[in-house]
Amino acid sequence: MSFVTAENVFQSYGNRPILERVNLAVDEGAFVSIVGASGCGKSTFLRLLLAQEQPTRGEIRIAGAPPAAEPGLDRGVVFQKYSVFPHMSVRDNIIAGESFRTVTGVFRGAQKAAARERAQATLARIGLDHVADHYPATLSGGMQQRLAIGQALAAKPRILLLDEPFGALDPGTRLSMHDFLTELRRETAMTVFMVTHDLEEGFKLGDRVLVFDKPRWDPTEPDAFGATITYDFDARDGGIPFQRSEEHTYVRRPA
Amino acid sequence: MGMRLINRQPGVALKTALTILPFLVAFIAYWIGSEIRLAENPSDKLLPSPARIAATAERLFTEPDRRSDRILLWHDTGASLMRLALGVGISAVLATLVGLLIGLLPHMRATLAGFVAVLSMIPPLAILPILFIVFGLGELSKVVLIIVGILPFLIRDLSQRVLDIPREMIVKAETLGASSLVIALRVALPQLLPRLIQSVRLSLGPAWLFLIAAEAIASEVGLGYRIFLVRRFLAMDVILTYVLWITLLAFLMDLALRTLSRKAFPWTEASL
Lengths: 255, 272
Ligand SMILES: Nc1ncnc2c1ncn2[C@@H]1O[C@H](COP(=O)(O)OP(=O)(O)O)[C@@H](O)[C@H]1O
Ligand SMILES: [Mg+2]
Description:
Bound molecules: adenosine-5'-diphosphate, magnesium ion
Number of strands of chain B: 0
Structural class of chain B: mainly alpha
Structural class of chain A: alpha/beta
Helix content of chain A: 25-40%
Radius of gyration of chain A: 19 Å
CATH architecture of the domain at 4-74 and 157-245 in chain A: 3-Layer(aba) Sandwich
Oligomer: heterodimer
Number of strands of chain A: 10
Order of helices and strands of chain A: EEEHEEHHHEHEHEEHE
Largest sheet of chain B: none
Distance between the termini of chain B: 38 Å
Shape of chain A: globular
Strand content of chain B: under 5%
CATH topology of the domain at 4-74 and 157-245 in chain A: Rossmann fold
Number of domains of chain B: 1
């Protein structure tokens, strides 16, 4: 039984189809990269995985559970921007990963002290312990995204969703973020979906690379059809592309 | 060709001088006007000389009234500031609450957003007679006028600010297991407070307007009441003293709020 399944998923806004017939089965612990042209519906698919939106047709399930109605603790997310809380210190952002689920959203007393210690350990692991008392706006873009990932992981989600998390970073920072993410994954073996517009990044980090595209195209009416998964690559073995394409690939095989 | 005007910056000394200049010009213009009128008619009351205003101000600030044995200016100031603080304070608290409800809860938004938009179209002074009839001529009607005058603006401004919070941030909180209450208290409210201070700063002008209007019409004490009382005797020196005093008070309030905003919210971009 696959861990994450999408079954015949369609999504339209008004009468404009964005996604159509998306089928997917992902094993627990897999790292799935999602690539495709800008505006083809990658973020839309991620929002569906997140349960921020409901598909117009079809179902998405995690671990066989009924489709979720809204985002929750089982799905962590990091967006390109706005993924940390600007009014909280770096440390408090990490603590929020544990405390937001409580009735008041904050810890007190012994609980607070314990959470502080765990946060300190997390910060040391993600290399932000020296800026624990700073506010996010004083951090570099790379540090902010590391914080966002650390915060998401502090909540211990079952899957982690990343929407172009490194899209706004400079190339050098991006490389060190790749190492950071690879390391974290070795430790946690979490199931990850990452949208990226950088094909190389997708193959480097992913076990699998999904390409979203429109399989049908009407030149007189470009919006007539939605996108789906047109390629599904096995990207293991050092991320050498086009190495083995999976048997059940939806449409064409790579030449 | 010289440098573009938009790129020319005044130096520190020049900038200070330029800041002072319009004040100085206004003062000198008044002084000259006053001199001319007083030269024609020494008992002219319309433009009292600066020296005369200074003397009046000193008397008003220090000498008690013969009948009541109170220094009326301080008495008026206390009464007016109390009304202003109550009106603005109550409005700020209500607007924060309603702004959060409208901004976060779609059902509340559907229910209240249109209603508040229409309410904000009512000219507050037009319903002042109704307030006097309903709440009497005492303190309540004056405080209510300030609230009626600035609350709709504050609610619209703050609810919009809540709506402006990036959806990503709300969704992030949801994925950390936050309830609607936790999102309101730990995400939306802290980000709303700096904006609340800005909005209150903007609404202080209208608040003063409504306060003075209400005091002018029905009151026994207050800055606006005094100005309209002495108008009958053409006591321009008293009126001008009060006007300058009100201006100074308004300026100090604005300064205090600006300082508070910088000190209390060290995380906002502006204060980094
Ligand atoms: N809430 C929405 N309402 C209407 N159209 C939307 C909405 N969200 C996205 N779209 C449209 O759907 C298309 C796909 O968007 P998106 O998933 O963000 O693309 P990508 O992430 O692949 O660049 C775009 O044309 C976008 O304008
Ligand atoms: Mg996108």
